[in-house]
Design brief:
Length: 109
């Protein structure tokens, strides 16, 4: 179990920066390709740019954000960003579980 923890930890430290890089790429593509969706989210949430990108990323369904259809480039950037988000979350959960399991197992010995 220690080995999974030791392998998951560096992988997690690589995946989170990749997610934020892809979220930034999504933000740029959204600003160019679908400015109306970005502006609508910015007016609605009154947040800074990365937070607006995250809100649009998480609130969009089936290629739409509040009635605004995404372009194919935005959809591609969204898929990549969501994929890195899920990879990062899963790695975090593996590292958390392995760390807790290892501490419980070693605590009983």
């Amino acid at each position: 179990m220690k080995y999974l923890f030791l392998l998951g930890l560096p992988a997690m430290f690589v995946s989170y920066p990749m997610y934020f890089m892809e979220l930034n790429a999504f933000k740029r593509v959204l600003k160019i390709e679908n400015p109306e969706a970005r502006d609508q989210a910015k007016r609605r949430f009154t947040l800074n740019e990365p937070e607006v990108a995250y809100r649009v990323l998480s609130a969009s369904t089936d290629g739409f954000f509040q009635g605004n259809a995404f372009s194919p480039a935005v959809m591609k950037a969204r898929r990549v960003a969501v994929r890195w988000l899920y990879i990062s979350m899963r790695l975090f959960m593996v590292v958390l579980f392995m760390g807790l399991a290892t501490s419980l197992i070693e605590g009983k010995q």
